C-alpha cells in the first residue's frame, strides 16, 4: 500500500506546490486567501454531503462484501444519508449564495461559484461514497490509479487557467475537482461497483442507520467543524488585520497540510491495526514505545529540515511571502505535538471510543478558535499559530490522560475476569 500511494502523494505534493507558487506570484496573498477559502468549503462539503459515512462504508463493505442482502441494506442506508446531505447542502448553497460569497470571499461577486458548488454537490457525495467502496474492497492499485489520473486532469485545468491569467477559472477548476474524480472513478471502477451495488434494488430506507451514526459524529467534528473554523479564522484575520495577512496564514496552513498528509497513511496502516489488538497496559506502552522511537523521530527530522530551510521554501513556493518566516517555529512545534497526540487519539478510533474522540476534537477545535481570538490583537497573525501550538499542548495532555485511564480500566477488568 505504501509503495503504491507514496509516489502518488509525492506527485500530488509537487504539482500542488507548483500551483501555489504560480498563484502566489500572479495573484499574491489575496489569491492564496481565496483558494484557501474555497478548498476549505470543498473539504467541508465532501464530508457533509455524505453525512460523514465514509469510514462506515469502508468498514462495513469489507465485512459484508460476500453478503448480498446486507450489502443492499448498506447501500440503501448510504443512499438515504447522501440524499439528505446533498439536498440540505444544495438548498443552503443556492438560497444563501450571495451571503456565503460575502462570508467566504468578502465579495458578492463570487455568488456564481457557490451556485456551481450547489449543482456539483450530488457528485461530491457520490464520489466520496464510491471512494469508500474502493477502500473497503482494498483495491489499492485502482485507488492509486484513480487518484493520480483525476488529480493530473484537475491540475491541468487549473494550470491552463493560470496560464491564461484567469483566476475565476482557477477557482472553478478547484470547485469541479470532485466531479472530475467521480468521472475517472466510474471509468476505472464501474465494473466492480456493479458487482457490489445492485442499483435497481436500492430503497429509500436506512436499516443500518445506527451503524453509521458514530462515524457521522466523528467525521462531523473532525472535518466539517474544523473546515468551518479554518474559514472563520481566515475571516477573523481579514477583519482584524488585512487580506494579505489572511493570505499569509493560508499559505502557512497549506504548507502544513502538505507535509502532514504523509502522516495519515503511516498512522492508518500501522497504528490503528496495532492498537486494535492491544488489550493490556504493558502491550499498549510497548506499542507506544515503538511508534515514538521510529515514526515520530522521522517526522521530527523532517520538520527540522523544513524549519532550517524555511526561507528557501518560501522563495521556492510562496515568493514574496517573507512574513511567513516568523510563523514556522510555532506551526512546526504545534504540528509535532499534534503528531504525538494523534498517535494516542488513533487508540480511540481503533477501540471505537466515539465519545472520547468527539470530546477531544471539540476541545482541540474550540481551543484553536478561542486562542486565535485572544492572541490576534496582541500578536497579529503570529498569534493564530501561537494559539495552534498551545491548543495542541492542552490536547496532548487531555488525550494522554483519557487513553491512560481507559487502558488501566481495561487491564483491571481483564485481571478481574
Q: What report would you give on this structure?
A:
This protein has 2 domains: 2-230, no CATH class; 241-416, no CATH class. The protein is 87% helix and 0% strand. The chain has helices at 2-48, 54-64, 68-95, 97-105, 111-136, 140-163, 167-175, 177-196, 209-240, 243-276, 281-308, 310-317, 328-350, 354-379, 381-416. The longest helix has 47 residues, at 2-48. It is globular. The two termini are 39 Å apart. The model has no long low-confidence stretch (mean pLDDT 83).
Could you tell me the radius of gyration in angstroms?
22 Å
**Assembly state here?**
single chain
Q: Biggest sheet, in brief?
A: none
Shape call: globular
Q: What is the ordering of alpha helices and beta strands?
A: HHHHHHHHHHHHHHH
Give me the count of strands: 0
Mean pLDDT: 83
Number of helices: 15
Tally of structural domains: 2
In terms of structural class, how would the helical and strand content be classed?
mainly alpha
Q: Roughly how much helix do the residues carry, as a percent range?
A: over 70%
Distance between the ends: 39 Å
Query: Percent of residues in beta strands?
Result: under 5%
In the predicted model, the low-confidence regions spanning at least 5 consecutive residues are none
Question: Notable features of this structure?
Answer:
2 domains; mainly alpha; 15 helices; single chain
Topology:
Blueprint: H1 2-48, H2 54-64, H3 68-95, H4 97-105, H5 111-136, H6 140-163, H7 167-175, H8 177-196, H9 209-240, H10 243-276, H11 281-308, H12 310-317, H13 328-350, H14 354-379, H15 381-416
Helix pairs in contact: 1-5, 1-6, 1-7, 1-9, 1-10, 2-3, 2-5, 2-9, 3-5, 4-5, 5-8, 6-7, 6-8, 9-10, 9-14, 10-11, 10-13, 11-13, 13-15, 14-15
Amino acid at each position: 500500500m505504501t509503495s503504491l500511494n507514496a509516489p502518488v502523494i509525492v506527485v500530488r505534493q509537487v504539482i500542488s506546490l507548483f500551483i501555489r507558487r504560480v498563484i502566489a506570484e500572479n495573484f499574491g496573498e489575496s489569491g492564496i486567501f481565496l483558494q484557501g477559502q474555497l478548498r476549505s468549503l470543498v473539504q467541508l462539503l465532501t464530508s457533509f454531503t455524505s453525512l460523514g459515512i465514509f469510514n462506515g462504508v469502508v468498514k462495513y463493505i469489507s465485512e459484508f462484501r460476500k453478503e448480498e442482502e446486507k450489502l443492499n441494506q448498506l447501500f440503501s442506508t448510504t443512499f438515504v444519508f447522501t440524499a439528505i446531505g446533498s439536498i440540505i447542502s444544495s438548498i443552503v448553497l443556492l438560497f444563501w449564495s450571495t451571503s456565503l460569497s460575502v462570508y467566504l470571499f468578502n465579495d458578492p461577486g463570487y455568488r456564481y461559484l457557490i451556485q456551481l458548488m450547489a449543482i456539483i454537490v450530488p457528485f461530491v457525495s457520490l464520489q466520496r461514497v464510491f471512494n469508500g467502496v474502493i477502500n473497503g474492497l482494498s483495491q489499492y492499485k485502482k485507488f492509486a490509479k484513480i487518484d493520480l489520473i483525476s488529480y493530473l486532469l484537475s491540475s491541468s485545468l487549473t494550470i491552463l487557467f493560470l496560464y491564461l491569467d484567469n483566476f475565476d477559472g482557477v477557482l472553478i477548476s478547484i470547485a469541479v475537482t470532485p466531479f472530475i474524480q467521480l468521472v475517472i472513478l466510474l471509468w476505472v471502477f464501474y465494473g466492480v461497483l456493479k458487482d457490489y451495488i445492485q442499483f435497481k434494488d436500492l430503497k429509500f430506507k436506512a436499516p443500518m442507520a445506527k451503524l453509521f451514526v458514530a462515524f457521522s459524529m466523528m467525521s462531523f467534528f473532525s472535518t466539517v467543524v474544523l473546515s468551518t473554523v479554518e474559514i472563520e479564522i481566515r475571516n477573523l484575520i481579514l477583519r482584524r488585520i488585512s487580506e494579505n495577512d489572511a493570505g499569509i496564514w493560508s499559505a502557512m496552513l497549506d504548507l502544513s497540510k502538505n507535509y502532514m498528509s504523509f502522516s495519515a497513511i503511516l498512522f492508518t496502516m500501522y497504528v490503528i491495526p496495532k492498537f486494535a489488538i492491544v488489550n493490556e497496559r504493558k502491550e499498549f506502552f510497548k506499542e507506544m514505545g515503538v511508534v515514538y522511537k521510529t515514526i515520530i523521530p522521522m517526522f521530527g527530522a523532517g520538520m527540522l529540515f523544513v524549519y532550517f530551510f524555511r526561507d528557501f521554501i518560501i522563495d521556492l513556493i510562496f515568493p514574496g511571502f517573507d512574513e511567513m518566516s516568523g510563523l514556522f517555529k510555532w506551526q512546526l512545534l504545534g504540528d509535532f505535538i499534534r503528531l504525538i497526540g494523534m498517535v494516542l487519539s488513533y487508540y480511540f478510533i481503533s477501540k471505537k471510543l466515539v465519545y472520547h474522540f468527539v470530546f477531544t476534537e471539540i476541545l482541540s477545535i474550540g481551543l484553536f478558535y478561542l486562542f486565535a481570538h485572544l492572541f490576534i490583537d496582541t500578536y497579529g497573525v503570529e498569534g493564530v499559530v501561537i494559539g495552534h501550538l498551545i491548543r495542541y499542548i492542552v490536547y496532548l495532555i487531555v488525550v494522554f490522560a483519557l487513553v491512560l485511564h481507559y487502558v488501566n480500566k481495561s487491564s483491571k477488568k481483564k485481571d478481574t475476569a
